[in-house]
């Protein structure tokens, strides 16, 4: 029961953090005309759908083994992690096609320093969220939570590297 409660706590933290990030990125994308911020907003919003589904299914993953289900429901969690990966890959490919089309047609003029500062702030927030989630996950062994932690780790790295590259002097 404690494991299920901690998993839900981590998923809720991930959901609400992702929601705040998606809203901030969407508002920033409108304000700055940044395709990268819009891409991040769409990606984060898509991920929220999956996290919400997992929040409802987490109790199922912890149901005990029975005669009707001799292997329990734990294997479903791994299947959902695979489905999430495929779904996020398709979202990424769809949004990337839009960004590529925009880039090939001249792109949008943006303020690089502004976008870099925004990405840096989100990257710093990602580090804090990741560390909090990792601390809550100390004694858990859950594929879903492991995937969430990896997602936040990749997001943090992407945002911080994007912010650093934007501060480079243009030629």
Structural commentary:
By secondary structure, the chain is mostly helical. Helix content is 81%, strand content 0%. The chain is built from 5 helices and no strands. It has helices at residues 2-32, 35-61, 74-104, 112-136, 143-166. Helix 1 runs antiparallel to helix 2, helix 1 (2-32) packs antiparallel against helix 4 and helix 2 (35-61) packs antiparallel against helix 3. The model has no long low-confidence stretch (mean pLDDT 81).
Care to give the gist of this entry?
This protein is mainly α and 171 residues long. It has helices at residues 2-32, 35-61, 74-104, 112-136, 143-166. The protein starts with a helix and ends in a 5-residue tail after the last helix.
Write out key terms for the chains shown.
single chain; 171 residues; mainly alpha; 5 helices; elongated
Taking Cα atoms only, what radius of gyration do you get, to the nearest Å?
A: 18 Å
What letter string, H or E per element, gives the SSE order? HHHHH
Secondary-structure-based class equals mainly alpha
**Regions with little confidence, pLDDT below 50 for 5+ residues:** none
Number of strands: 0
Share of helix, binned: over 70%
Distance between the termini: 58 Å
Percent strand: under 5%
**Number of helical runs?**
5
Instruction: Give the overall shape, derived from the CA principal axes.
Output: elongated
Main beta sheet = none
Mean pLDDT: 81
Structural topology:
Blueprint: H1 2-32, H2 35-61, H3 74-104, H4 112-136, H5 143-166
Helix pairs in contact: 1-2, 1-4, 2-3, 4-5
């Amino acid at each position: 029961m404690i494991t299920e409660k901690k998993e839900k706590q981590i998923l809720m933290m991930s959901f609400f953090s992702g929601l705040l990030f998606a809203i901030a990125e969407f508002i920033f994308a409108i304000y700055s005309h940044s395709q990268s911020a819009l891409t991040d907003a769409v990606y984060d919003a898509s991920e929220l759908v999956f996290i919400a589904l997992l929040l409802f299914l987490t109790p199922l993953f912890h149901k005990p083994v029975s005669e009707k289900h001799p292997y329990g429901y734990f294997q479903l969690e791994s299947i959902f992690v695979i489905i999430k990966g495929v779904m996020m890959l398709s979202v990424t490919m769809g949004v990337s096609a839009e960004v590529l089309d925009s880039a090939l047609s001249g792109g949008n003029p943006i303020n690089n320093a502004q976008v870099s500062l925004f990405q840096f702030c989100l990257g710093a927030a990602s580090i804090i969220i990741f560390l909090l989630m990792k601390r809550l996950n100390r004694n858990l062994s859950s594929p879903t939570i492991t995937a969430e932690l990896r997602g936040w780790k990749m997001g943090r790295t992407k945002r911080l590297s994007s912010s650093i590259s934007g501060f480079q002097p243009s030629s």
